[in-house]
Amino acid sequence: MASVTGLDGVVAAETELSLVDGQNGYLVYRGYEAKELALKMSFEEVAYLLWHGELPSAEAINAFKKQWVDHRAIPTELKAVLDLLPKESEMMSVLRTAISVLGTCTRQESAWPPQFEHILANTALLPTIIAYHYRRSQGLQPVEPDPQLDHVANYLYMLTGSKPQYVHVKVLTAYFILAMEHGMNASTFAGRVVLSTQSDITSALCASIGAMKGPLHGGAPSEVLQMLDEIGTKEQAEAWLREELGAGRKLMGFGHRIYKTSDPRAEALRQLMQELASEDPWFDLAVHVEKVAVELLREYKPGRNLYVNVEFYAAAVMRAIALPTSLFTPSFTLSRIVGWTAHLLEQAGCNRIFRPQSVYVGELPASLLNRP
Ligand SMILES: CC(C)(COP(=O)(O)OP(=O)(O)OC[C@H]1O[C@@H](n2cnc3c(N)ncnc32)[C@H](O)[C@@H]1OP(=O)(O)O)[C@@H](O)C(=O)NCCC(=O)NCCS
């Protein structure tokens, strides 16, 4: 039996949620191009689409937003646990812990199939948890959620304590929508595997958060900033990139298992940022580094089709709105939880436990080798 490292090319499920076309470079959510949704819709509308299968009417979205706002406050038991954690705890570990505590305190742990109320509760609360721990780590008082603000604006408000600029909400919403769902990526797969045992959504979400934490999945944007900081100027880009590639190191924000052409999410974010930050020398450097890196990847890794991925320009968006790097992966997470939970609903609707095989390549005992 042939083994497939990294399950490359293996189809693990059918889904109606998204089409990731890696050859032609497009991404579709339930029949709509994600980049169109990113420019026109709110976070809540696209979440509704992914969870319910259709875009909401004006009446439905108003009712939905009210329901959403009701889940934003941190329950007392969870607050007590968050206050016990070391202030310097890494945010993704805090999120994993918080989701676990929330599930236990709100009796989500025995629910099968997953209940929509629990999905909304986890999704609505994540930004509050991030903002709460972030401000605590900075020695700042927490900021209560503002029921007048939508999900993304409220996130920025709870982080900073001030009403966010319209343009910041616009670019962050576009990034969040583009990052919301992406087929059978590692964190989504991890969650579906856990749920397929008829376990609860809390356990599935903890698995997804754990997978998201790794630098090969959700941790790339902060490393992109570090790379651009080290490169410093356009003149130094080629030499720096050559040294990395020559030493066999990977360039963060490049390459993708599925996309063998430019990642459409990166294209959309680059375009949006061009309108916003065309005067910013840092953004100019980023565009230059992308161009040189793609040329060099062609030279050092011929035939691998390595292009820019979403994380590269996600870094640009998050830098433009002055999000600290420690919040990059958690911010990605508060968006991807929509895709994860949509997949959990889908998995529960046609569940069969995941159980792939492995190929034994170790020694056999003599008793078996000599058996006739
Ligand atoms: C995304 C990623 C994990 C996909 O991994 P994958 O499908 O398993 O691809 P592989 O790691 O097997 O890469 C295939 C080849 O391309 C090379 N490669 C892939 N991404 C590369 C990168 N960013 N820089 C340099 N080389 C890269 C690998 O070294 C490998 O070369 P080889 O055939 O000589 O061994 C990988 O491209 C990567 O690590 N990128 C950087 C991290 C990143 O940006 N992550 C965010 C993803 S949205």
Write the layout of secondary structure elements.
Elements: E1 18-21, E2 26-29, E3 32-33, H1 34-40, H2 43-52, H3 58-69, H4 76-84, H5 91-105, H6 116-137, H7 151-160, H8 166-179, H9 186-195, H10 201-212, H11 220-231, H12 234-246, H13 264-277, H14 281-300, H15 310-320, H16 328-349, H17 366-369
Antiparallel strand pairs: 1-2, 2-3
Helix pairs in contact: 1-8, 2-16, 4-5, 5-6, 5-10, 6-7, 6-16, 8-13, 8-15, 9-10, 9-16, 10-16, 11-15, 12-14, 13-15
The structure holds coenzyme A (COA).
| Rg from Cα | 22 Å
Number of strands: 3
| CATH architecture label of the largest domain | Orthogonal Bundle
Number of domains: 2
What percent of residues are in strands? under 5%
Shape: globular
Structural class: mainly alpha
SSE ordering: EEEHHHHHHHHHHHHHHHHH
Helix content: 55-70%
N-to-C span: 22 Å
Which consecutive residue ranges, at least 5 long each, have pLDDT under 50? none
Compute the average pLDDT: 94
How would you name the oligomeric state of the polypeptide chains in this document? single chain
Query: Strand count, sense and closure of the main sheet?
Result: 3 strands, antiparallel
CATH-defined topology of the largest domain: Citrate Synthase, domain 1
Strand order of the largest sheet: 1-2-3
* CATH C-level of the largest domain: Mainly Alpha
With helices defined by DSSP (H or I, 4 residues minimum), what is the helix count? 17
From the structure above, extract its key features.
Cytochrome p450-Terp, domain 2; binds coenzyme A; 2 domains; 3-stranded antiparallel beta sheet; mainly alpha
